[in-house]
Structure prediction request, 49 residues.
Amino acid sequence: MPLYAYECKVCGVRFERRQRFSDEPIRTCPECGGPVHRLVQPVGIIFKG
Prediction:
């Protein structure tokens, strides 16, 4: 399962959740209940050669 990072638009707290592709994205902050948005993270790819 992928690990998604979120950030609260109100308090700025960042948190990560392991979710399935079919799960709905998280919409509320666990700290303050404000709206959150998912952060774009780099993909862990290593090229050898």
Observations:
- The chain has one domain: 3-38.
- DSSP finds no helices and three strands in the chain.
- Strands lie at 3-8, 14-18, 36-38.
- The CA atoms of residues 1 and 23 lie 11 Å apart.
